[in-house]
Amino acid sequence: MKATEMKVPYLDLKVQYESLRDEIADSLQQVLDNTAFAGGPFVEKFEKEFAAFCQSKFALGVGNGTDALWASLTALGIGQGNEVITTPNTFIATTEAILLSGAKIVFVDIDEVTYNIDPALIESAITERTKAIIPVHLYGQPADMDPIMEIAKKHGLFVIEDACQAHGARYKGRRAGTIGDIGCFSFYPGKNLGAYGEAGGIVTDNPQLVETIKMFRDHGQRKKYHHSIFGWNGRMDGFQGAVLSVKLKYLDHWNENRRKNAELYNNFLGDVEGIITPAQAEYAEHVYHIYTIRVKNRDKLMASLGEKNISCGIHYPIPLHLQDAYRDMGHSKGSFSVAEKCSEQVISLPMYPELSEEQIEKVSREVKAFIGNQ
Ligand SMILES: *Cc1c(COP(=O)(O)O)cnc(C)c1O
Questions:
Q1: CATH code for 15-248?
Q2: H runs (alpha helix) in 134-206
Q3: Is residue 218's pLDDT more than 70?
Q4: Domain extents in the chain
C-alpha cells in the first residue's frame, strides 16, 4: 500500500483488542461461570488493583465517569445552595455532575499553555457559597495541583479531581486523582484505560467517603431495601470489572507508547511556524489521552486531512459556557476568552498506543503541507 493510501483513524480499539483476545475471552468466561454480573467479586478485584496502581487507599467502581463525579459531590455533602468551580474547557459530564448534585456551576478560565484551569483566577471566583473546586486534567495532563490545593485549604474547599482523561498521569510523581479529596475516572472504551462498555471509578484515602459512595451507588442502602440516604444505581458491571483487571496491567506500557507517539509528533511539528504543539508542564507526566495542536484554519485543516484518509477530533468545539444547554447562566462571547480562543484553534490528531511511526509521519507530513500552503 502506498503511503498516501494508508488510513490513519483517530482511534483504533480493534488493534488493542486483537492483542488481548484470549485473555479477555477467558476473563469474560469467568464472569459467566460465576454469574457475577452487577458489582461482585470481579469488580472488587479490580478496585483493589486500581487502588494499588494509583497508590490510593481505596478505589470504587461505579457505572461511568459521570456517576463518579456526581457520587463524589453528593458524598461530600455538596448540593443546593452551593457553588462548584470548574473550567468551561472540558467535556460536559463535569458540569452535568455539578447540576445533578443540585449545586451551581461557576466557571474559571483556562491557562493557555496547559489548557487546564488557571489557578491564578480561582480566588476571585470564590464566594461564601463555594464548596469545591473540580480541576480537570484535560487531554491527559494534570492541572497545577499545588496552588489549587493551597487555595482550597485557605478557603475550606473540597477538591474533586476529574481524572477521566488522565489515568496513570503524574503530578510531581503522584498519580492523577490522588492529590485532592477524591479523584474521578471514566473507563469509557476510548479512554486510556477503557472498559468494553460503560464504567467509571473513584479513588480516595477517606474511608467515610468510601462508605457513603458504596451506599450511593447501590440505591442509598447498606442493607437491602433499607434506604438510608439518597442514592442511585451506580454500580459497575461485572464484565467491565473483569475486562479492566486484564487491561490495567498494560496501562503504564500503553501510556509510555502514547508518550513516545507524542514525542514523534513534537519532533515533526514542534518547530513549524503556525503550529502550537502541546507543552508538557515541568511538574507533569502527560499521558496524551488526546494529542491536540493549535492552528489558524482548523476546520480547513481537518477537511484537508480527511481527504487524505486521516481522521481527527476537536476537543472541544464549543466551550461549555456558550452551549445552548447553559444559556440561562447568562454568559456570552468574551466571558472566558482564553477557552474561546482555544476552542477555535484546537485540532486533535490521531493518538493511541498502537499508532505506527509511519502513520505519525504521514499525519505530520500532511499537516505541514497544509500549513505551508496557507
Ligand atoms: C469522559 C469524561 C467524563 C465522563 O465520563 P463518562 O464515563 O462518559 O460518564 C467526565 N469528564 C471528562 C473530562 C471526560 O473526558
A1: 3.40.640.10
A2: 145-155
A3: yes
A4: 3-9+251-372, 15-248
pLDDT tens per residue across span 219-271: 999 999 999 999 999 999 999 999 999 999 999 999 999 999 999 999 999 99
**pLDDT band, residue 3 (cuts 50/70/90):** low
Rounded to the nearest angstrom, the distance between the alpha carbon of 66 and the centre of ligand 1 is 6
Nearest to residue 220, comparing CAs of 200, 234, 209?
A: 234
C-alpha grid cell, residue 84? 462548584
Q: Is the pLDDT of residue 54 over 60?
A: yes
Residues with a CB atom less than 6 Å from ligand 1: 64-66, 90-91, 93-94, 136, 162, 164-165, 186, 188, 200
DSSP-assigned letters across all residues of 359-374:
HHHHHHHHHHHHHHT-
**Distance between Cα 301 and ligand 1 center (Å):** 27
Give the whole-angstrom CA distance, residue 132 versus residue 143.
Answer: 15
Of all protein residues, the one whose alpha carbon is nearest to atom 2 of ligand 1 is 164
Q: Whose CA is nearest to atom 6 of ligand 1?
A: 65
pTM, 2 dp: 0.97
Q: How far is CA 237 from CA 4, 22, 121, in A?
A: 42, 20, 40
Is the distance from CB of 224 to CB of 238 less than 8 angstroms?
no
Compute the distance from residue 365 Cα to the ligand 1 centre, in Å. 32
pLDDT above 90 as % of the chain: 98
Q: Which CATH architecture has domain 3-9+251-372?
A: Alpha-Beta Complex (3.90)
CA of 342 to the centre of ligand 1 (A): 20
Task: From the CA of 69, give the closest atom in ligand 1.
Answer: 10
* Contact status, residue 359 vs residue 21, Cβ threshold 8 Å: no
Which atom of ligand 1 has the smallest separation from the CA of 200?
Answer: 7
Mean pLDDT over 130-159 rounds to: 98
DSSP string for residues in 256-304: HHHHHHHHHHHHHHTT-TT-B-----TTEE---SSEEEE-SSHHHHHHH
Identity of the amino acid at 330 = G
Q: Quote the ligand 1 centre to 102 CA distance (angstroms).
A: 19
33: its cell numbers? 461461570
State pLDDT tens for residues 158-176.
999 999 999 999 999 999 9
